[in-house]
Amino acid sequence: MQLRGIRYSLCFMSGVLMMLLIITGCTDSEPSWTTFVGSAVEKSFPVPKEAKRTETATNNTKVDYVHYSMPGLREDDPVPEPYVKAITEWGWKENTQESTGTTLVFTKDKLVVQLTMHKNAFTVLVPKMQEKTIIKGLESNQ
């Protein structure tokens, strides 16, 4: 009698485990592109909330960048349309003259952001503006 109860419990647990494996295996690995948050290097530039930050460099004197993992991206494909729409809704405009290949350049006010697509990842890069000192010559009024 007790052995039968153990068998039923094992069968039930095996069934639950199989269902979990099937559900986990059938989940969609494509990004949803519905929810966005500010980038780690420029809060006013959106990134998908589901993207995972894998590398950040903010101590470089020329650029700040953050690398995000995002399954389902392909380097040869264009930036997904919902992402481009979110970027423009956040006030950014693409600088088509500066954009090349898998890197798109966006501007907002005096800010510049470069978005580069990779296989299953993307990078948000913010070049630091170099302040140039202008020395005006003194004119003589003689």
Overview of this protein structure:
The chain has 142 residues and is α+β, with helices and mostly antiparallel strands. The protein has a domain at 36-127. The protein contains 2 helices and 8 strands; from the N terminus they run H-E-E-E-E-H-E-E-E-E. The strands form 2 sheets. It has a 6-stranded antiparallel beta sheet with strand order 3-4-8-7-6-5, with no helix packed on it. Strands 1-2 form a two-stranded antiparallel sheet. A hairpin with an 8-residue loop joins strand 5 and strand 6. The longest helix is centred in the N-terminal third of the chain and has 24 residues, at 2-25. The radius of gyration is 25 Å and the shape is elongated. Residues 23-28 and 132-142 have low confidence and may be disordered. This is Lipoprotein.
Task: Provide the descriptors you would attach to this structure in a database record.
two-stranded antiparallel ribbon, alpha+beta, elongated, single chain, Lipoprotein, disordered C terminus
> What's the total number of strands?
8
Record the strand order, biggest sheet.
Answer: 3-4-8-7-6-5
Give the percentage of residues in beta strands: 25-35%
**Termini Cα gap:** 117 Å
* Overall mean pLDDT: 80
Count of individual helical segments:
2
| Stretches with pLDDT under 50, minimum 5 residues | 23-28, 132-142
Portion in helices: 10-25%
Elements, N to C (H/E): HEEEEHEEEE
Question: Which class do the helix and strand fractions yield?
Answer: alpha+beta
Overall form: elongated
The Cα radius of gyration reads 25 Å
Largest sheet, in brief, is:
6 strands, antiparallel
